[in-house]
Amino acid sequence: MSYLRKKNKIVELHFDAAHYLSEEFGKCMSLHGHRWHVKNLTYEQTKVIDFNLISKVIENFDHCLIVPEKHVEFWLKVKEMASELNLPFTFKLKPIPNELTTVEAIAEALKKELENLGISNVHFELYEGDNYCTIV
Hints:
By secondary structure, the chain is of the alpha/beta class. The chain is built from 3 helices and 6 strands; from the N terminus they run ββαβαβαββ. Strands 4-3-1-2-5-6 form a 6-stranded mixed β-sheet. The longest helix has 13 residues, at 72-84. The relative contact order is 0.21.
């Protein structure tokens, strides 16, 4: 039995998330946020993929603090301390398997999650704000 491959395109999705970089990136080492734009997302499928599943992957990055996996323990302690002090401060962590949370690393993590849905040949542009972009 053969399956027809169908090429699909989503013009734009977006999410809002915070991240930080290392000292070598200057002012970007401070915790800061962006509106991230996923543009021109193309993919192939051999089975029907519900668009809502793709949208859900993007939503998993929305209103999160994107951190390297090795920093998760630290951020969980920060969250716990804030709770113990009754501070109105909370956040949702989104760990990625990279040393840095650059736009390139975030794009690769997003691509991997999309591929885990069973779609293949995923390509898109990820914009950090309005200007800086990487293509995967």
